Amino acid sequence: MSNAVRTTGKLQVTTPSDREIAMMRVFDAPRKLVYDALTKPELVKRWLGVFGGHTMEVCEIDLKVGGKYRYVWRNKDGSKMGMGGVFKEIVPPQRIVTTEKFDESWYPGEAVDTVTLTEQGGKTTMTTTVLYESKEARDGVLKSPMDTGVAASYDTLDGVLKSMR
Amino acid sequence: MTPQSLDATFAALADPTRRAILARLASGEASVTELAAPFAMSQPAISKHLKVLERAGLVSRGRDAQRRPCRLEAGRMAEASEWLENYRRFWEETYERLDALLEEMKTKAAKRPRKKKRGDRR
Questions:
Q1: What pLDDT, on a 0 to 100 scale, did the predictor assign at position B5?
Q2: Domains in chain A, CATH or no CATH each
Q3: How far apart are CA A73 and CA A79, in angstroms?
Q4: Are B93 and A21 within 8 A, CB to CB?
């Protein structure tokens, strides 16, 4: 079991087990709003993976257990990336469990995403845990240069040392 | 870097005392005695932490038999942090977009006269 401590800014990325990646982030909004932003297509379209020239071309959400969701992003150069899955569990406005699979996946099998929302003092902590089919799949995701269009240009060591203070 | 050794590295970084030791070593090498000084901890306890850091490849010990100075293996740490970096960066950017959207939603919600309940569109 390893427990990573990469903490910078407000986002925490950890590896709670050898098949998982977890992210924790606090949002300055009540959880009902965060839940809406996660589940209503007209809202999801406006934030999920849409930066650096990416737009969301397809955003379909059938919000019921067994219902499907489907997202397709379009890059500036016209290339597309699609993914989707099925809702396994829905507890508004606190918990959503879905499967995820990318059309051209860079990891084997399907992953299971669990999102939990807890509210305190008007702020919402969102924890997203992605459980992969194998450790190899998880490690592959962490090592892949996710196509973010963002240049990796700062001194990572400096970043770690700052976060340790 | 193999995933296995990464596990050791992350496990080593998960402890606040060990992170403090690394932060101290970032400003130059030090002996165990020097490292133990700022902590309310015995030298053997510090030595234990150092062994974990050494196994994780984050710290190395000098040959000088008396002092055996400890130094930071900066490359190893950079590798470990880079591993999560791409992933983190993607989500950091994405969540910043969500922050902006939530601000807008809050403003709208405040302006709108309170209805009993907004029906969830499915």
A1: 63
A2: 6-147 (3.30.530.20)
A3: 8
A4: no
Tell me the ipTM for this assembly: 0.71
Retrieve residue B103's tokens. Answer: 């601000």
Asked if A51's CB is within 8 angstroms of B87's CB, the reply is no
Within 8 A by CB and 6+ apart from A44, the residues are A37, A38, A56, A59, A61, A71
- List the single best residue of A6, A32, A163 to mutate versus B (max B Cβ within 10 A): A6
CB A73 within 8 A of CB A56: yes
Structural domains present in chain B: 3-75 (1.10.10.10)
* pLDDT tens-digit readout, B21-45: 888 887 788 988 888 888 888 889 9
Say what the pTM is: 0.62
- Do B91 and A157 lie within an 8 Å CB cutoff? no
